[in-house]
Design brief:
about 5% strand, about 140 residues, mainly alpha
Amino acid sequence: MTTDLSPRAVYVVKQLELAVRSRLDMICRKNGVTTTQYTALSVLRVRPGMSSAQLAVRSFVKPQTAHQTVTELESMGYIKREPDEFNRRILRITLTVKGRVLLESCDGAVDQLEEQMFEGFHGTEPLKLQHLLNRCIRNLSPQP
């Protein structure tokens, strides 16, 4: 009987998350934001016009945390909120020029982090890994 002594996949994923989070925290701190704020800004760059509730889901935080993050980012001038044209109670969030500049200042360091993380990978391996991880996320996400 052979026993595989390799760490479980969930352990390896958690170790990667901790390593990435530690480096991302340093990058964000140097740019005057938290990792949660940076994540929200990054999501808004790709999906402008989200509500706080939508942003919470996409940023992997609770609605209360998203609301606090949005309030902070707005007071810092990185985002603006405007009422939805059809439902005035919904506030749509978009990046300001200042928010885009902040993201651009973080992008180089985040690019370097990803380059280091994928060191020794070949060709499309990083993209394949990203697709596989996204599939894992979908598999574990609640079904509608």
